[in-house]
Amino acid sequence: MNAVAAMALRRLALSAVVLSLVSAIVFVGTEILPGDALDSTIPADELIYYTAEDLSRMRAELGLDKPPVERFWSVFTGLATFDFGVTIVTREPVWDGIRHPLLNSLLMAGVAVVLTPLVAIGLGVLAALKPGGRLDAAISGATLFGYSMPDFVVGNVFIIVFALQLGLAPAVLMVAESAPAGEMLSVAALPVAALAVSGVAYQFRLLRAGMIEAMDSEFVERARLAGLSERRLVLTHALPGALIPMLNGSAQFVAGVVSGAVVIEAVFRYPGIGLELVRAVAQREVPTVQAIAFLAAFGVILSNLLADLAILALDPRVRRRADG
Amino acid sequence: MRHEAPRTRAHVETAGLTVTYRDGLGGERAAVRAVDLALARGATLGVVGESGSGKSTLARCLLGHLRPGARVSGGHVRVGDVAPFDLDSRALRAFRGARAAMVPQNPLSSLTPHMTVGAQLGELLRRHARLRGRAARARALELMAETDLPDPASLHDRYPHELSGGQRQRIVIAAALAARPELIVLDEPTTALDKTVESHVLDLVARLQAELSATLVYVSHDLNVVARMCSRIMVMRDGAVVEEGDAAALLRRPRTGYAEALIAAMPRLAPERAPSPATPAGPPVVSARGLRFTHRSPAGLFGRGAVGRPALDGVDFDLARGETLGVVGESGSGKSTLAALVCGALTGGAGSLRLDGRPLAGLARSRPADQRRRIQMIFQDPLASLNPSQTVVDIVARPARLYFGATAAQARAEAARLLAALDVPAETMNRGPRHLSGGQQQRVAIARALAARPDVLLCDEITSALDATVQAQAIALLRRIQSEHGLAILFISHDLALVASIAHRLLVLEGGVARDHGPTRETLLTPGSAYTARLIAAFRRNATAMPSSAVLADENRTKKMLSSGH
C-alpha cells in the first residue's frame, strides 16, 4: 500500500504543475480577448460620457492598470491557497458567486458520472453475452449513434421529445440558483440523461471490446471447459479485467462532463457553473474564470487519480509493478 | 445413476467425426475429417501433427467444445455413456471438469490474471465437489501438494503472474484433476516450459493418470514427449488420421512417408554428429569479455529503482567468421539478455564488447551505421518482428535503401533475388507478412537480415514458433547461408538438441553465469558442470522412447558419465 501512497503523492505533485499551467493559459486567453472588465461593464452607448482620464482613473481603482504579470501573480497566489479573491467590478467574493452554481453542477455531473459506468456495465455485459447477436447489434448501433451526436443536439432532441412532445419535463428550467438539492435533482433528470448519453456510449464500447476479448481468452476457455457457468465466467473471470480500459474511459468522461456541462446547461438553462462561466467570460471577470477553470482542472485530475487507484485494486499485476 | 458401459465398449470413442469451420468467404473448411477413435478405460493416446492438423480441435471435441464458427458436420463423440454434443448446457457443464478435464496449451495465459490461484481451485471444488470455505481450502492445498507444488499454503493466495511457468502448469493440472475426471485431455501442456520443467510435469501427469486410472489423450507436436507418455500414437494431417498404432512400433517402423518425415525432423541429441569448430579458429568477429547486466526496476519517487540479481554475470565468448556459437539455458538464464547486449538493445551493461577488435557502444543508436549493419538480429516471433503495413518485398528492400543508398527499384530487385534464394514463393512478395505461413514469415525475417549483408547473425529462439519439419528446413537454410556467406552466427535456444545440431561451440548459461563453454561435441560428451549434465539428462529422458541406436548409445554414455561423477 506504500507504493500506492507514493503514486498518489507523485500524482498530486504533478497536478500542481498542471494547475499552474491551466491558470496561465486561462489568463493568457482572457488577456488576448479585446477589452477588459471595465469595457464590458460600461454599455457601448454610454462610453461617450466618459473621458479618457475617467477611464484610466477607474482602471487604476480596479487594479486593471497593473502589468499583466503582476495581475496574474495576484490571482495565481490566491488560487494556490484556494482563496479565489473578489470580483473585479463588484468587489464581491468570487466564491459567493460560484458556490451555488458549482453545487448545482456537481449535483448534475455527480449523478451522471456515477450512473454512466453502471449503465455502461449493464449494457456491455448484455452485449458481450452473445457478440454479434440481435441484442448486441441493437445496443452497439444505438450507442454508436449516441456517441456521434454532439451534446447540444442530444440536449435539444431530449427537449423536443420529452418536454415538448411527451410533456414529461419542463423545456426550460425555472429554478432558483439557490434551490435546495432535492428540487434541483428533480429538474436535473433531463440534463443528466442528456449529459450521460455520450459517456454511456463511449464507456459501453470500451467495456464491450474488453469483455469480448476476455470471453475469447484462453483463461475463460479453460474455466468454461472446467464446467463453470456462463454467469460465473462473465462476472468473475471476464468482467474485472474488462473494467480497466473502461475506467480510463470513465476518467476521460469526467473531463468531458466539464465541457459537456457548459453546453447542456446552456441548452436547458440549468443554473450551474457552465452558465456562470459563460457569463464570467462575457464580463471579463478574470478571477471568476480563473476559479472555475482551476476547479474544473482539479476535478479532472482527481477523477484520473481515482480511476488509477481503482485499476490498482482490480489488477494485481499493476499493483505489484507499482510495488517493485 | 450412471450405467456401467458394457466391457466390450470403448471408454472414449469418436466415429466419423467431422468438424468444419466457416471461412471468411462464406464457405466451410474441414478441420477434422472423419476421425475414428476408440480408447479403453485407462488407455493413453498421443495425437501428433503439425499446426493446422486439427489435433487441438479434436481434443476440444472430446469435451463437447467447439470454438466459435465451428460445427460438427458428421459423426459423433462418446465418453463413457455420455455423448457430449447431445447434452443440454446444464448437463454439459456437469460433464466438463467432473468427468472429462482439459489441460490447455499455455499455462501462462490459461489462468485468470486477477484471481488468486487458490480462488481458481476453490471455485471448481465448490462447483464439482460441493466444498466451501475451510474444507475447500484444505482440499485445494491437498491438490496443490499432489502436484508437487512447494509450500502450497503460501502459493494458495498468490496471483498467477507471481508463479513460475512450471508452477502455473501444475496449478492448471491441479484444477483439471480437482473433480477426479475419468478422461484427461492435454493440449501441448509443456510446450511453453523449459525442458527440465517439462520432464517433471510429464512425470507428474503420468503418475496422476495411473492413480486415477483415467483415459489420457495427449496432443502435441513433439514426438519425443508423446512417445514417453503414451502407448498409442495417432498421426494427423489436414484433419485426417494418417496413421495410428502402437507407439513403439510406429516410431520404429512408420508406415507412411509423412510419419517418417515427422520422426526424421525431430532434433535428436547426437554429440557425434555435432559440427566441429574450424582449426585453427580464425580471429574473432565478435569478442565479449566480462559481460554483465542487471535489470533495474523503474525509478521510483525517491531515487533509482532497486537492483536485483544480475541477468548476466561476467560472460566471455569469441565468435569467429563462419562459426556458430550455440547459447543454451533455461528461461531466466540470460540468453536473450546476451543477444540484446550484442545488438545494442540494452543500456547499462558492463564489460567489453568488440566487433573486429573495435569497441561496440552500448546502445545501437550510438554505434556507427556500419557497425549496426554488420550485426543483424532474427527474432522468435517472425510476425511480430515484421511491419504489418508493408509488403514482404518492401520489408526486405529496406536495409539496402538504409545502408547502401540503393534506389527503390534496385533495392526491390535485390530483395526479390534474396527472397527467391530463400525459397519464398514469388506470388507472396507483394502481400503483407500476415498472409504467409510461419515458416515463410521466418524466411522473410532471415532475408531482411541478410539484405544488410551482415557479418554477424543473432538468432534468438528463431524456430520455437515453428513446427518440427519447418524448423528442420529453417536450420538447413541457416547452414547453407553460413557456408555461402561465411557468417558468424550466435544461435540461442532452449532446445539443446537443436543447438547441438548446428553449433560448432556451446555456451551453457545458468542464472546469468557461464557453466560450460567449449566445442559442442566435447561439451556434450564430457560436460564441465553438473548443470550441463542435468540439462543433457533431461533431454535424454524425453528422447528415450525414440528408438534410435545413436540415442541409445548416447544414453549409456550419459549414465556412465553421471555415475563417474563428472
Automatic annotation (TrEMBL), chain A:
InterPro entries: MetI-like, MetI-like_sf
GO terms of biological process kind: transmembrane transport
PROSITE patterns: ABC_TM1
Keyword list, A-Z: Cell membrane, Membrane, Transmembrane, Transmembrane helix, Transport
Domain ABC transmembrane type-1: 102-307
CDD domains membership: TM_PBP2
GO CC annotation, single: plasma membrane
Gene3D superfamilies in alphabetical order: MetI-like
Subcellular locations according to the entry: Cell membrane
Membrane topology: Multi-pass membrane protein
Protein family per UniProt: Belongs to the binding-protein-dependent transport system permease family.
Protein name from the UniProt record: Peptide/nickel transport system permease protein
Organism whose genome encodes this protein: Rubrimonas cliftonensis
Lineage summary: Bacteria, Pseudomonadati, Pseudomonadota, Alphaproteobacteria, Rhodobacterales
Automatic annotation (TrEMBL), chain B:
The keyword Membrane belongs to this UniProt entry's keyword annotation: no
Assigned keywords, A-Z: ATP-binding, Nucleotide-binding, Transport
Superkingdom of origin: Bacteria
Alphabetical list of PROSITE patterns matching this protein: ABC_TRANSPORTER_1, ABC_TRANSPORTER_2
GO biological process, one term: transmembrane transport
UniProt cross-references to NCBIfam families, sorted A to Z: PRK10419.1
Name by which UniProt lists this protein: Peptide/nickel transport system ATP-binding protein
Biological classification of the source: Bacteria, Pseudomonadati, Pseudomonadota, Alphaproteobacteria, Rhodobacterales
